[in-house]
Amino acid sequence: MSKISILSSLSIKPSRWGIAFETWIGSILGMLKDQLGNSKEKLVYFPLIISLFTFIFLSNILGMIPYSFTPTSHIIVTIGFSIAIMIGVTILGFEKYKTEFFSLFVPSGTPLFLVPLLTLIEFISYTARAFSLALRLSVNVTAGHSLFGVISMLSYSAMVGASSIIGKVLTISLPLLILVPLYGLEIVVAILQAYVFTLLTISYLRDVIFIGGH
C-alpha cells in the first residue's frame, strides 16, 4: 500500500476524539435548530450557545476534581451569566421589534381594564427568569458537592475513631461503595445542568425572536 493511500485512509477514518467532538457540535446544533429553525439568520447564535454550554459543562466537571474550585456553584457567577443573558435578549428584542417588543408583556385578547395588571405580572415574570436560571444551576451543583463533602468527612471521622485495622478498612471501603456511583451520577448532573441552562437560554431567545408569530 502506498504512502498516499495510507494517509488518505487515516484522514477519512475519524478518531474517537473526532467522533466525540462531532457529537458535541451536532447535539448543540440540533437543540438550536429545534427551537429557532434552520435559517442562517437564526444559526448566527450558535457560537454563543455552544460557548455557553461548553463553559458551564467544564465548570461543573471541574468541581469533580478534589480541592478544585467550581465556578458554577457560586451564585454570583451564575447570576452574572443569567443577568447578562437577559439583558442581551432584551436588547435584541428592542433592536428587532422596537416598541412592538412591549407586546411580549400583554397577552393577546386581554381586556383593556386588565392590561395594567397583566403587564405588571408579565414584567415580573420576565425579570424573574434571570434569578430562576441562576438559582437552578447554582443550587443543583452545590447540592452534589455538599453531599460529597459530608460523606467524606463522616467516613474520615469514623476511620480515625476506629480502634482496629478491620474497622478502619470497613470505614474506608463502605463509603467508597456510595461515592463511586454518586461520582458517576454527578457527571450526569453536570451534563444535564449545562443542557438545561443552555436550553432555557435558547427558549428565551425564541420568545423575543418570534414575538407575534414573526
Describe the model.
The protein is mainly α and 214 residues long. The protein has one domain (3-213). It contains seven helices and no strands. It has helices at 3-12, 16-36, 40-43, 46-62, 75-97, 115-161, 165-209. Helix 4 (46-62) packs antiparallel against helix 7 and helix 6 (115-161) packs antiparallel against helix 7.
Q: In the residues, how many domains can be counted?
A: 1
How many helices does DSSP assign?
7
Using only C-alpha atoms, the radius of gyration works out to 24 Å
Unreliably modeled segments: 1-10
Based on secondary structure, the structural category is mainly alpha
Strand content: under 5%
Helicity level:
over 70%
Shape: elongated
First and last CA, distance: 58 Å
How confident overall, as mean pLDDT? 78
